[in-house]
Structures are given as structure tokens and as C-alpha cells.
Structures
1.
Amino acid sequence: MQIPNRARIPRSSWANDTSGRTRRARIHATVVTATQDMLQPDTVRRSTRRRSGCRCRFLLRARVLSRIETCGMAANNTRDKDGEHDGGGEDGCQLAVGRLRVPDDMAIMALHDTESPGQLRLRVPTDPAILSDVRRVLRAWLQHQGAGADDVTEVIIAVHEACANAIEHGYSDAAREFELNALAGVGELAVTVRDRGRWRAPRERNRGRGLAMIAAAMDEVDINRSPAGTEVTMRRRLTGR
Amino acid sequence: MSLADVQTLVRDGILVVSVTGEVDMSNAENVGSAVVAAIPADVRGVVLDLSRVEYLDSAGVFVIQGVRQTLLARDQAFALVAPAASPASATLRIAGVSRDAQTADTVDEALQTLDGHETPGA
């Protein structure tokens, strides 16, 4: 699969998945933990088989593990009597996360579509403490895509800096989460980090450094700032090393 | 649970500060404060060992540069340990921080570098 040009990537396949009803009917929500071993291919396959038709999966912090299965069931139970989820996959995921009643339910929500394994979609709270988990999830996913050690290291550095900026943008606003979308093609990778906060000029020298690091680690960077938020799209040809 | 830990030991009048774990925007300022607080005013130099840092981000680089500046202003010598294949080294390279004479692969090498350092009144 080649990564299409920016203009040819349908938005629906990236983040704001507003899939039609035909697709909706096949979407179920299942919740699993974000522990590293759950991200290994074997475990992912096993958990996929556990409930046929599984399409979505959450990756949550291990400490809310006890609640997770309950939430998964809750999401599945929202299907109407025709077996059709009334809100689509992402709404189902939102619903399940919304039902987490732990006080610090800081969770990365990951939509993992088993029909497009080369795609990773995360919703991340704008809290610096989550960044370590984001790196872990991204590392596991990149390794699963067959990326080499240098690719993994440098992509994580770039994506982390983009996420750090997204969190900074979110500080001043009510934006409570941002999106991370990654798409792996043959020898290529594209990652978009999109926030809904207000773009801010780097407050100190440090944040300017973050953008420079993104540019240094990736082959191509597009920054799109608008009143609605900031979108950073990064591309890199994978070296396999 | 803390993301990073700071430990110190003194070798030949040089303070070796070892940082372990992950240093990012969530804890970089605290790590920097812990490092500076661990440095006595009378030590003639500091080796900041990043070889066991699992992740370093731009906020961490900023803090390291701050520690370096603080020490230089106090006429204390400074050396960084960041082995070529370490995560910290990858970040420093991408951040454009050049591997100068004050960057070493091992603590021993860094100590040797500082042995040639003249301190005021030494």
C-alpha cells in the first residue's frame, strides 16, 4: 500500500471517521488494556478472535484494568436490535471511555480497525503525564509495522514533540484531547497530530526546538494552523534500519 | 510512580549525577531542579550521566543546557555521558546539540576529560 498524497487521503480514513451505515453495522467495541504485551501481534489476534466481528479496541492504562471489560460490554450493548451500533465505532469507543468512573480515568483511546492494520488512531488527553504511554503504544505499533530501530527511535522523537506541542496548545483552552493518526505504507509512514486548542507561538526557546526536531527527524512536515486548531502532518520514508 | 530518578556519587572530587528513566515535558523541570540541588558549590566538576535514560525530549535537552550554563557560571566543569547508541544521544543529535569534547561514551571517559580541567584555586 502506498501512502497517498495529502490531498488524496480521505479524511474519513484518518480521524473523523463518519462511516456510513453499511460499515457501522460491522463495528463492535471491545476494550483491552494498553499493557505492552497486549500490543504484541499474538495477543491482538487472540483478543480479536474472542468476539467475532471485533473492529475497535481501546488501549487504556493498566491501572483501570478492572473496569475495562465492563466498559467493553457496555459499548456492545448499545447496539440496537438490528445489531447495528447506533453511533458508529468511535462513538461506541467514546461511550465506553465515558463510562469509566475512576477519578483519574486518563486513557488513550485507540481505534484499531482490523481491516486496516497499517493504521493507528489515538485520542489522547492533553496531559503531559500521558506522553510516556503514547510513546509506548507508538513504539509497539511501529515495531509491528516492521519499522527498523532507527526509524522507531526517530519517529517517536518527532511524534512526541508534536504531541507535546498539542498539549501546550490545549492548556489555554477547554480542549481536553488531541488526535494522533498514523498510516504505514510500503516503506513509508505518515503521522498526523491534530489538536483543537489555540496555536501559540513558542513561549520559550524550548518549544521552537521541538519543531526543529520534528523537521530533523522526518522527511516532510506540514503545519496547518487554523482557528479550529493545529494539524501537524509528518512523513518519513522508512529506512528499515 | 516517578518517570525518572536522579542518583549521585562523588569520584575524585567530581560529582557524578546519574539520571535513569524517562525525561520529558512532564518531569523535565523537576529532574533539572533535582540535578542542580544535588550539586554542592564546592565540587570542582559534574558528570551528568544520561546513559541509562530511556527517553529524552526537547524539554529535557533544554534543562540539560540550563544545568550546563549554571555550572559554567559557577566555574564548575561539566561533562555529559551519552553513549552513541543511547536514546539520549539520538535526541541530542536530532536537537542539533553537537557532540563536543564534553560529551563522552562512559563515565570513566568523562572523568578523564574533566581531569584536564583547571579549576580556580586548584
2.
Amino acid sequence: MKKKLAMTFAAVALGIVAGASGLGLALRAQSPLADSNRPMAHGATVEYLFPEQITLTSGKPSAVTLHFRVAEGYHINSHTPKDESQIPTSFAVPESSGVRLESASYPNGVDYALPLDPGTKLSVYTGEFTVQTRLVAERGNHLVEASLHYQACDKSVCYPPKTIKVPIDVIGN
Amino acid sequence: VKRNTIVLGITLLLLAVFAWAGWANWEYRKQAAAKQAAMAAAKAELVPAGSAPDASLNSSPLLGKQAPEFSLADLSGKKVSLSSYKGKTVMINFWATWCGPCKIETPWLVELRNEYASKGFEILGISAEADDLADDDKAGLAKQKAAVAAFAKQEHMEYPVLINGDSISTAYGGLDAMPTSFFVDRTGKVVAVQLGITSKADMAAKIDKALAE
């Protein structure tokens, strides 16, 4: 009887050990250290956020919203800059990738003026923005390397035009 | 019964130890995170929002060295080389048609050139469009040249405007920021650099420095 009781306690103790380590792992996952901002690769002022994977009905144009983020302190020209010398932001899907870009619709830019030239309004994107696309997928699984072309500036410096990869796993059913 | 009490006691003790360890661990991580956040905030203060995130805007590996020689075509097609300006103080100003701040500083450049002309000073405005055109892309290059010429006319660039600065971008440190200016003294040495737009007074001070060398 005593032996049985001792064994029960041992089992309870083991359970507590397992529970505590489980709790520890859970805490670790929620630790404020774990969700520190992902550093941005040098030179990339725009980051593609999501979706990473989409499932579409093959052969049928489908609406897909793509999410991007411009790093803090920077702006990029909108798709329709006010001055023709400025390079518009544009999204592209390569030919014969199994997915065709039927159309892309861009948000309106916000008005922005450089501190040294407050009278000249630019049309720009800052922070998060989306591109609304209509994609037509062929049947099958396609690893599409789409791209976003943009030209970024901050308040005193402009950076050469850049094209970033927009990788999307498209499944056509 | 006595043995049961001992086992129960040990179990409770173990439970207490685990609870304490868990709490202590959590506290420690919280403190570490707060410390990291404070450090990140301190770092962020050093780099004001909106300025280039890396390096100083006045530094370049070329500082104190001879400005790399180049020979580029002007808008009329005539080749212009840096060495032909030896004995003069030269401001090499890299710009691009898509660069807003370049547009803002151009009137300052025109004024500075007039103010300093009598002291043996010249500006070379070199367009570097970074459009990855191939050397044999005649149509693309012609279009680029037309855009540069239109910009130069619109902005009244009264100093030599040279094209295809991209061909010398590596020698001049990559030209990752526009505008970029190199202030070169009479002997051909780079004495000051400016990445991005500052002010006309700041540019004048750098020209004075180049003239004084």
C-alpha cells in the first residue's frame, strides 16, 4: 500500500517535471526576445510580406492581393508618379512561369514633399501597401518568381532603381 | 503514514522549485528583452529617422586619394576627361533624372559655379541612371541621353554634363546614393565627399576647403 502511494507520488512528480518543461518551452516561444524585428537585407527598402502560397482554380482569373512593406524613413514612387522622370512602382510575373498576370491594380499614392522643397508634392508609398492582382494559373504547382520594380528615396538621398523577388507558390487545381 | 508525509513534502518542494525556476527564468528574459529594447532605442536615436541607415554621409574610401580618372562623353558627344581639369578645383556631381534631391540642388550648383568661376573652379555633372543598359543597346542609350539632355535643359545646368556615369560607378564607390559629390583639389585629390542633399552653404564650405588645399 505504502509502495503504491510512493509510486503515485513519483508519477505525479514526473508529470510536474514534464509540465514545467512544457511550460518553459511555451514561455520561450512567447518570449519578447523571439519576436524582435527581422533585420532587412542591406539595400532592400521594400520587403514582400505575403502570401507565400495560394491555391487557384486553374484557367480562371482569380483575385490575389499582395502585401509589401516600405522600410521606415523611406518612400517609393507610387505606380503613377506626378513627374514623368520618376520611376513608377510596378509588379511583374515572368513569361512561361505557369501563371499569367491578367491585371494589376495599384493603390493611389499619398502626397509627400521633401523638407527642402515643400512646394513640390510627390506621389509615394510608405509603410505597408498592397497590389491587387488577377492571376491565371495553369494546372499544377508553380514556384513563381514574380518581381517588384521600384525606386526609393529618403528625405535627402535617392537610391538606384531596384527589382526585388516576389516568390509565390501557386497551386492550380 | 510518516513515509507518505515525506513523499508529499518532497513533491511539494519540487513543485515549489519548478514554479520558482519558471518565474525566475521568465523575469530574466523579460529584463534581457527590456535591455535589448533600450539598446535598440539608443541606437535608433543616433540615426534620425529618414536619414540613410548606414555610414556617415561625408565619408568615402576615396577621401584623401586621387580621384579616379575618367573620360566620358558630354551631351554633344565630345569626350571629357577629369585629367584635363588638373590645376583646377573640381566638384564631380553624380546625379540621375529620377532623383528628386538632385533636382533641388541643381540651382545651387549653377550659382556656386558662377560665384567660384574666377577662382579656378568647375563642376562636372555626371548622370548615372543605373538603368542597366547594355553597351550595345543603341536605342536605349539614345533614349537615356535624350532624357538627360531634357533634364539638363529644364534645370539650366550650365556646366559640363557628362553621360554614362554608370561606367565609372565602381571606381567611385558604387554610387548607391544620389546625389553624390566629390570635391577634388588642384592636384586631383578628393578632399571632401557629400552623399545626399545638404545645403548650398555646406557645399560652399567644401569647395572652399578644396580651394584651400
